[in-house]
Write a structure and sequence with these properties.
It is built from five helices and ten strands. It is an alpha+beta fold. Strands 1, 2, 3, 4, 5, 6, 7, 8, 9 and 10 form a ten-stranded mixed sheet that branches.
């Protein structure tokens, strides 16, 4: 039975996350609805590289599904894009072996978090960037990024609702803060991420920029393994899953 791998983008503002939920519009739900049409009513399950929350966007989410149909990879892309709603688009499809799994074969992911800092809010970006019009010390934020980078136990910087039962040690290969005319872009590239980890880290780095924490405090916070030590989980609107890396 062929296994199809798809890379897709979606505007998360119209979805209650990626994962299927009863009576809610989800990315996986829309994908499975289209596949069901193509398979004449038969349910075809979609497996994603990970679950994005309500309001979170993706430019490089990866899924796979198994199908009894034998179509060229490009035909899958054309057929699904013709059926999918306008806020989901497949950029690539390929036929892979059964050894491939969208989630378990992934070796790294890259997330971006976009912050709008201009004094006047752009109403058209309210679903696509986190609004934070406060004075920030960018030098301190960049210094803090260097402390966050590396291999650490990220318990302090993940939701207490995380479903991970084992180790919360993860390695972030890249943590950067880039400036542009509208604000900031945080880039996090690592071997894995815990629930809400990127949103908590981005909010914390903004707190560093406001002087609420010093970069030197970060090793102590890692050692504490206590979510209550740092601030709130900021909104989903600025978060983008940019790419998933495989062997």
């Amino acid at each position: 039975m062929p296994r199809i791998k798809c890379t897709l983008a979606y505007d998360g503002s119209g979805f209650s996350g990626f994962q299927i939920q009863p009576d809610k519009r989800t990315v996986a739900g829309e994908l499975e609805k289209c596949l069901q049409k193509m398979h004449k009513g038969k349910v075809v399950r979609v497996h994603g590289s990970g679950r994005t929350d309500t309001g979170v966007h993706a430019k490089g989410q990866v899924i796979h599904f198994d199908t009894p149909l034998h179509l060229p990879a490009e035909n899958w892309k054309k057929a699904l894009n013709a059926l999918l709603p306008g806020d989901i688009h497949l950029s690539n499809t390929e036929i892979v072996t059964e050894a491939f799994h969208a989630r378990f074969s992934a070796i790294a992911k890259e997330y971006h978090y976009i912050v709008e800092t201009s004094p006047e809010r752009d109403v058209f970006s309210r679903k696509y960037a986190y609004y934070f019009p406060h004075a920030l010390n960018i030098g301190k934020i960049k210094e803090a990024c260097d402390y966050v980078k590396g291999k650490h136990d990220f318990t302090t910087f993940s939701s207490v609702k995380t479903s991970v039962k084992g180790s919360k040690v993860r390695t972030l290969y890249t943590v950067t803060c880039e400036e542009d005319e509208s604000g900031l872009r945080f880039i996090f590239y690592g071997d894995g991420f815990l629930y809400n980890m990127v949103r908590i880290l981005a909010g914390f780095l903004l707190d560093v920029g406001q002087g609420k924490w010093e970069p030197e405090d970060i090793p102590v916070l890692f050692a504490a393994k206590d979510r209550s030590k740092v601030g709130k989980t900021i909104g989903p609107e600025g978060l983008y899953l940019m790419r998933v890396i495989y062997e």
